[in-house]
Each structure stands twice: as structure tokens, then as C-alpha cells.
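ingest -> validate -> predict -> emit
validate: passed (alphabet ok, no gaps, 619 aa)
predict: started
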Amino acid sequence: MFRPGRGSSRTNDDARFDLRQLRRLWSVTRPYRARLWFAVAATTVASLLGVAFPVIVGDLFNTAFGVQADMDFTSVLRGGDSVANGAAMATPADLNQIGLILAAVFLVQAAFNFIRVYQLGYVGEAVVADLRKNLFGHLMGLSLGFFERRKTGEITSRLTSDIATVQSAVSQAVAQFINQGISLIGGVIVLFVISTQLTLVMLAILPAVIVATAIFGRRLRRISTAFQDEVAAANANAEEAIVGIRIVQSFTAERFEAGRYGAAIDTAFGSAIRRARVRAFFVPTVILAMFSGIGVVLWYGGQQALAGTLAPGTLITFLLLTVIVAGSIGTFTGLYSQLQEAMGASKRIFELLDMQPDLPVRDTPRTWDDVRGEVRLEGVRFRYGDRGDAWVLDGVDLRAAPGEVVALVGPSGAGKTTLVTLIPRFYDPLEGRVLVDGIDVRDLDPHALREHIGIVPQESLLFSGTIRDNVRYARPDAGHDEVVAAATAANADGFVREFPDGYDTLVGERGVTLSGGQRQRIAIARALLKNPRILILDEATSSLDSESEALVQTALERLMRGRTTFVIAHRLSTIVGADRIVVINGGRVVETGDHRALLARGGLYRDLYETQFRSVTSA
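emit:
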């Protein structure tokens, strides 16, 4: 299982791993290869023209001063006439021709640079959009347990900062790599043509630069990955505080949350400073080495120019090309650092994409056409792997007939909520099985199963948008009349019409603009519109005031009609009319019967009921 901030930052630093990551990142560009290769071609032309610039400038100087050079590179472009035969042959027309050639080079290079920037920008944005869509779609298909083990901020960090890092590599680093690669190779070839001795002097510094790049780059990647993990952790803390801002402020915990976030940011800041320190050593070291080489070349080339073995214009060409080559090598060091950061980010993204749901799906799931709503649990045992070895459910046998209302009661932690989460297959039992209409839920496609199950939890989550959008969440194609009918049956139509915008009223994030009772009635309308055969009510009225509870309870009674319903309730007064009451304690079914029979039996149910009755009467 992936643990952010641990093995991801300390393993797989070898080059072979980097190549695999790079190949996988490259595979993401497959739908846009035509544009990418077009951009590569444009980059190639622009880079070659960039190498031609120093050559033309050198010829311009030699022509201007009538100096004879061993080679006149622009003579071919000017019709084959050489100006290298003596000072008398240098004319303004010759200079004008070279100037026009230089201007043409600049214009053509600008055109190809435009193509390069636009096409690579398009590819970069498209790849990032695809990555975000694929990653989010994959996350939506993962099991509930995955989200219970992860902080929301950590997941959103993958969708934002990590993918942005990858975007930078795809849209910028690729172009720079090609551009600087051609400049480096082309420049070195021309340098060898001009002077082998000078070129060998210039290249003598390269081995030290390559070794430094490998050492610093590996360390930089480890620090960058750790930094990304720490930022994700800080974002997770911030997400929790923002989502739970009412609780934070009610407990006057603003300073505590600010301090916790600040501590996480300080930790990330420490990694960022370490990363900056490594870069601060890395880049200047390479630049110092390269410009030291340039200084040596300038001195040695100057000696040759004074001796008359090298034309001044050719020396200028050599120096300009040396600067280009040095700049390319320096840029490569930065690109290597950027590539290492992108490898760390892409590794985290691909680790999520490689995660498989905890709940396997059959290759050929069974169909569930004749949905009646019978539910059976046979010898079910279950425990959460990260909460110790104690069984949350221990040998539960239970049957709910189609259309029957079954109430689940018992002390907190008895296993009631866990039991109902097994029905829509949010988890699989470790032993035993759960069946709907005689079919093991593991043999069904989870989507097909959940299409026939409706859930109304204690705290109903509404999505930012309108009331209409939230009711239609169950059926996006539902018409306005169907939405109104569902809201009316849920006792929601009255308060909705009181709003100036009616069903187009925005509910805010998580429905914060509505009261608890209003949110719950919208959730019931949503469940009514879905029209499920199996219904799960998980303490749907426990957090409401008496007036809201009465309205919601009436709506729930309409919702339960003709459906197999499981009701979890701490307020036992709300389930006295259930067809059957199942009492759970310690993960086991200890009593079963209707309200009167259980009271007469004098067991745990009667104790719970009398305790609540006494607390109500004493209040």
C-alpha cells in the first residue's frame, strides 16, 4: 500500500527506474504525437538557425574588416562569392547581403519558435487535462476504504500541484531539452570544424559537470519528493479545518488549527530550503566551471588571433558558439532538476492510478433483473484491518423480506452502521456472505447493485449548486415535475417555494445555507427520485429539533412505503412501528422481535427503552 512521504522518497533512484517513469510519462502524450512531432520539427529548425547566428556574425566581422578567413560560411548563400581574398574585396553590398541573411534567419527562427511554443503548450495543457480527468475518474472508482485511509487534502494535492509539476515538464522541459540538445550538438560540431584544439580545451570541463549533475540531481529528487509529500500533508490539514470551520470556531480552536497548519508549512519550508541550498550549490558550480572554460578558450583563441592563425571574426564565432554550448549545458542541469521533480510527481500520480479497488469485480457479473428487495446476511464476520483484531460483526444472521422495515438498535459501537454498509458493498465480509434476492453481492456489478439502494445518512451531504441539481443528483435526466413531486413527498416543496429563486436557489458548499431539517428533506427527495427497492436510514432524524424531526419523519414514512428498509435509530420512539427490531450488541444479534414483544421479554432493548423514557420524562 502506498504511504506518502516514506518509501516514495527513498527508493528507486537508479537510472533504470527513471527511464521507466519517463517512458510511462511519454506514453501519456500518445493522443497528441502528431502535434508533438510537429513541435519537435519546428524546434529543430529554430535551434539550427540559432547555431547559424554566430557563424553569420563571424563572417560579418571578417567581411567588414576585409580579413581573410579559412572558411566563409555565408558565401554560399550570397551566390558563392568569397570576401576572404583580401581587404579590397569587402564592399557595402557584401555587408548588406550578410545583414539581410541575418534578418531572414531571425524572421524564420521567430516563425518556427511560434510553432514550437504553441504546439508544445497545446500538448502540455491537453496532457494535464487528460491526467486530471483520468486520475479523478480512477479515484471515483476506488473503494470506500481508500478514502477513509486518506486525507482529502492529500488527494487534491495530487490533482493540483503534482499534475502542475508534470505539466511544466511536458510543456517546457521537452522543448528546452530538444532546443538545447540541438544547440549543444550543432555547436560542438561547428566548433570542431573551426578549431579542434580550442574545442578540446572547451570540452575538457564536461566530465566534471556530468558527475556533478548526477550527484546533485539524485539528491535534489529525494528532497523534492519529500517536499511534495509535506505540502500534501499541510493541504490535508487545511482542508479539514476549512470543511469543519463551524466546529473549529465553536471550540475556539482557530489558533490551534493555524498553529498546526503553520507547523506543517514550516516542515515543508525546511525541505524547500534544503532544495534551494542544493540548487544554490549545483547551478553556480556548473556555471563557474563552464565560464572558466570560456575564459581559457578566450585566452587561447586570443593567442591564435595575435599569431595570425585564426581570423578575428572566426574567434568571435567560436566565442559565441562556446557561450551557446555553455548555456546549453547549464540549461541541461536545470532541466535535469526539473525532470527529477517531475519524476517524483509523476510517480505519485501513477501510484494512485495503479491502485486497484479493494473489492474485486467479476469479469462477467450476474444480472439482477427481477429486483424484489430481499436481503440476507449469513454468518457474517467483519473487522477493520487498521482497528485491531476485534470483530465488529461476529456471526450475524439476518433476513429482511421484501418491503419489510427492519430497525437496528443497540449501544454505540455495536456494529449497526457497519452492518448496513455491507449491503451496498462498501466493504466485503471477511467471513459469510450478503445476498440480495438470493444473489451474493460479490457476484453483482457494484453499480448495478447500488442503483437499487438508497441511503439517507444522519448528516446529508448536499453539493454546491441549486436545490434542483441536488434533488436530480439521483437521476440527472429527471424533469422539473418529477423534481417537484419528489420534493413535495419529502415535505420540502413548501420551504423551497419560499426562497426567491425557488428550485434554482444555490445551497452553498455542503448545503451550508440550509438548516439541518431542510438539508435532510432535500436528501429524502433525492432518495425518493431514485426510487430504490432497498432503503437505508442511518439515524436520519437524530440531529434534528422536534419540529424538523416531525416533518422529516413524515417524509420518511412516505419514502419507506413498499421498500425493504433498514433503520438505525438511537431515538427508539421513532422505530416503535417497525415490522421487526433487531438488537445488536458486541457485533452479535442478541434480540429480535417487534416493539411490544421485546418490551415484554425484558432484555437489552427494554433497558435501552426505559433509559431513554426516564431521560425524556425527567427533562
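The chain has three domains: 9-354, 365-372+380-452+534-619, 460-531.
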